[in-house]
Amino acid sequence: DVKVTQSSRYLVKRTGEKVFLECVQDMDHENMFWYRQDPGLGLRLIYFSYDVKMKEKGDIPEGYSVSREKKERFSLILESASTNQTSMYLCASSLSNTVSPLHFGNGTRLTVT
Amino acid sequence: QKEVEQDPGPLSVPEGAIVSLNCTYSNSAFQYFMWYRQYSRKGPELLMYTYSSGNKEDGRFTAQVDKSSKYISLFIRDSQPSDSATYLCAMRDQNTGGFKTIFGAGTRLFVKA
User: Fold this and answer.
1) Please, which residues bridge with residue A35 across strands?
2) Torsion of CA B19, B23, B24, B30, to 10 degrees
3) Nearest to A41 among B42, B44, B105 (CB)
């Protein structure tokens, strides 16, 4: 079974802090994704990566950046956390083809105060 | 208008009932259709995956796709309290190379014992 592990289940940060969310997958998947999930809005794609050191913006990249230095690891960075970034953050991975479904981690609930 | 519409519920049913969950969509290019189940404080897990129109059955779960009506359904037979979760529909356009999956907002289901 694919395992996608997010390093923190809950995080509380202050406005203006730099925040790192880490994600590791163990199935040698080429693609990795960061989503945020908010009530009534569903899952929205922040960034994705299709290879090491490659990244593409998703639908809501503003205020975020990502890093993929190794194939198994994909980090989401909030450069200067704001209260409107309080959300559930979900990491996912998939194989590099059109049909491969997403496999998700258990999420990080981030609260910015 | 959202690309994918899904009634957020909540939907409350007695144990043993047949549950019908639905999504409508507007993009006729969608070819791959998925249903994810998300338990509270967990990440979404893939439940069903279908390509194009037709039915797919897996145990108590049946997924239906009607591309002519741009309508997909998930049926749960003999529902159990353990089926209580949020169900997310998701779909993908084959032209985006597997990078862009569009999610519904999710339907919360409660199955009462």
Assistant:
1) A45, A90
2) -130
3) B105
Amino acid at B84: S
Partner-chain residue, chosen from B94, B97, B101, that has the shortest CB–CB distance to A102: B101
By Cβ distance, the residue of B41, B43, B94 closest to A98 is: B94
CB contact under 8 A, B105 and A45: no
pLDDT digits (tens, 9 = 90+) for B38-88: 999 899 999 999 988 889 999 999 999 999 999 999 999 999 999 999 999
Closest chain B residue by Cα to residue A49? B99
Q: Which residues of A touch B63 (CB under 8 A)?
A: none
List the one residue out of B11, B12, B56 whose CA is nearest residue B34: B56
Measured in angstroms, the CA of A16 and the nearest CA of chain B are apart by 26
pLDDT per position as a tens digit, A28-76: 999 999 999 998 888 999 999 999 999 999 999 999 999 999 999 999 9
Contacts of B93 (CB under 8 A, 6+ apart): B27, B29, B30, B31, B100
Nearest to B98 by CA among A45, A13, A10: A45
CB pair distance less than 8 Å for B98 and A98: yes
